[in-house]
Amino acid sequence: MRNRRFPPVSVAFDQTPRATPAQTHWRGRTLFPTDFSSADIRGLSRQLRLRSVFSARMTNAEAVQELADVVDDLLAGKNNIATARLRMMRKLKSLGYDPERGFPQDMAAIPPAERGSLRDLSSEGRIDLMLSTNVRVAANFGRVLAGNSEYARREYPAWELVRLYHREIPRGSAESHSAGWQERWHDAGEFCDWEGAAKAPMIALKDSPIWEALGDGAGGFDDTLGNPFPPFAFNSGMATRAVPRAECIDLGLIEENEIPAPMRAQLTPGEQEVNDVFARLSPDLQAVLRKELAA
Amino acid sequence: MNVTISGTEKLSATLRRVASALHGSGRMELHQAMGAEVQYLTEDYLRAIAAERHKTADSLGASPSNHLAQAAEKVAQPGALTADADAATLTINHPGMVRAFRDVTIRPINAKALCIPINAIAYNRRPAQLWDQLKLFIPKGTRFIAMKTADGKSFVALYVMVRSVTQSQDRSLLPSNDQFGEAAARGARRFIGAALQKGGNL
Predict the structure, then answer these.
(1) N or C: which end of chain A has fewer CB within 10 A?
(2) Which residues lie closer than 8 Å to A257 by C-beta, 6 or more apart?
(3) A7 pLDDT tier (thresholds 50, 70, 90)
(4) Share of chain B above pLDDT 90, in %
(5) What is the ipTM of this complex?
């Protein structure tokens, strides 16, 4: 449905449903009910974690399936977090989950969790953490793919670590009693000798090893998720901003004529077309276009 | 919700001439570049307003829901953007973004009324989540969902029940059409410039 009040310009809105690769990626994951703790899960390979739907100590397959379905609806924009949270709470209740005893089939094999704590699968804090983490990982996994297109690597060669989500007590604040992201950035940078990365602001080329170091918790941080993209740590509100080429040149991360790898050696069909069109222009028009594009 | 970009009105006459002469692959790649810039613009725009727009949460003294921050991350994904020879389309699958292009009337689904939070405790929580925990009830003769005060003599209203809510269009939820047009032109310019540079013509 188009809004007729818009002037006749080249922008139009509609509501035809379309799936995104984040949803496709999410739907391709396998259910992984597990009695593993967070620390155990951290020891699994990144590829296994990115291909699975799981939550620490969530041993019940139906609960994991509900988590998968709820996250899918969130990615599709069909739900908000309040409705998604209520669905999970109701499902866990219907499956007989109790934080002190776990699921009925656990038979006391899972350590009891304090009611209302993050270890309590049915607590608001735990459910919000599960949902937001999975949605953000799916979204940012896709974003990294998008950021590696030839156009993106040429025009936006780097990411900047920035705050996106509001936090009452952000890491690094006095009340948090924890290291902030500037300190984590410094530790990650030292770990990889600042290859492709600036010390300040927190900007690094997309293929800089600092992103992996940040996700792996360089400096001894054990609250990270093991991914080279946001969220880098549990409950983190940090994200990345695509940094334009000019800024990267100003920071000295790339040279003015540097072409980021990997680049296709040959022209794409569309690029060939542009050059063919150019060849048919008059010399005067070619000169005008050269001047315009050099500006 | 989808934002479709086409046309080259914001380009210079010379660049428009080159763009208009493209067809098939050339036009598709042109639209990919235009769409990519629109995508970056939209992501940056949503990130900026996410940092400053917490009107409902602030009015209730509640923690923000980070609703717009979630939208910013969704719009940044690769297949949020599709392109073909006709246009580039940016898809934003996030509740509330439809309001950017029209008035929205919200009616309850599988319920008799919408429950609008009017207290910080209720913000970003469905009544069913709190019902047992806070012993919520509907005071007789009112349209509130409430909890009793500590002395049990009165109540604190947490939600008000309404049949529907109409939110007027808020075009400022997304960049303006002019901003979209300029971003698209930037993408077109960069695509053509890079193609000519690779082809040895610059």
Answers:
(1) C
(2) none
(3) very low
(4) 47
(5) 0.83
**Of residues B164, B168, B169, the one with CA closest to residue B106:** B164
How far apart CA A268 and CA A252 sit, in angstroms, is 29
Classified as helix, coil or strand, A11 is: strand
Residue A147 and residue A159 in contact, taking contact as beta carbons nearer than 8 Å: yes
User: How many residues are there in chain B?
Assistant: 202
Domain ranges (residues) in chain B: 1-102+170-202, 108-163
Asked whether residue A11 carries a pLDDT value surpassing 60, the answer given is: no
SS (H, E, C) A220-263: CCCCECCCCCCCCECCCCEEEEEECHHHHHHHCCCCCCCCCCCC
Nearest of A128, A141, A153, A149 to residue A215 by alpha carbon: A141
Residue B113 touches chain A, beta carbons under 8 Å: no
Residues near A78 by beta carbon (within 8 Å), at least 6 away in sequence:
B95
Best of A128, A273, A284 to disrupt the B interface by mutation (most B CBs within 10 Å)? A273
Do the chains contact at A14 and B180, CB–CB below 8 Å?
A: no
Q: Buried (b) or exposed (e) across B174-201, using 16+ Cβ within 10 A?
A: bbebeebbbbbbbbbbbbbbbbbebbee
Query: How far is the C-alpha of A84 from the C-alpha of A256, rounded, in Å?
Result: 48
- Closest C-alpha to B43, from A162, A247, A75, A206: A162
pTM over 0.80, yes/no: yes
Interval B62-106: pLDDT, tens: 888 888 898 888 887 766 788 888 888 888 777 778 888 889 898
Residues 167-196 of chain B with CB under 8 A from chain A are 169, 177, 180-181, 184, 189-196
Average pLDDT over residues A189-201: 96
Chain A's closest residue to B179, CA to CA, is A11
Q: Which residues pair with B86 in a beta bridge?
A: none
A74 to chain B: closest CA residue: B94
